[in-house]
Backbone:
């Protein structure tokens, strides 16, 4: 049975989590420009990211199926980053479980919205997030680019 669990101080499976993120983001290689920031993750900065933010895992028993990192941005939103689901378990509702978890956390923190960024080239992601209630709220360009490289999407909570 799949469950979502918060990453605690006792978590020590950084190599496995990094491998999960890299395999989940691999489909972007050669599609997005600039390359994904996932390529800059190391065991050390991934562990630091989990300490600085609020990280969740999708687990089936002990098997790691996905992750999501959340960063409160008071008073406006809860930022969702590095949301990923293992390619072999996509389509089983894990992304929606993460969304429900992030909505509950935002409400707990009295934040009125969820915010995320997705690359301009990833049209399927835009459609998935829109189906989950996110709307396009901004366009951004990475440093050194004179074109839109990512879009910001927001879900306003009731």
Residues:
């Amino acid at each position: 049975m799949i469950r979502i669990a918060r990453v605690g101080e006792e978590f020590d499976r950084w190599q496995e989590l990094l491998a999960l993120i890299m395999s989940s983001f691999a489909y972007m290689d050669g599609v997005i420009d600039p390359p994904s920031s996932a390529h800059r993750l190391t065991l050390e900065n991934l562990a630091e990211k989990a300490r600085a933010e609020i990280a969740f895992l999708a687990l089936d028993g002990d098997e790691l199926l996905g992750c999501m990192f959340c960063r409160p941005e008071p008073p406006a939103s809860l930022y969702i980053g590095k949301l990923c689901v293992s390619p072999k378990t996509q389509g089983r509702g894990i992304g929606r479980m993460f969304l429900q978890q992030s909505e509950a956390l935002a409400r707990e923190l009295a934040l009125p919205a969820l915010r995320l960024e997705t690359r301009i080239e990833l049209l399927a992601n835009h459609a998935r997030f829109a189906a989950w209630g996110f709307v396009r709220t901004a366009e951004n360009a990475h440093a050194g680019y004179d074109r839109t490289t990512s879009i910001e999407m927001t879900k306003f909570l009731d």
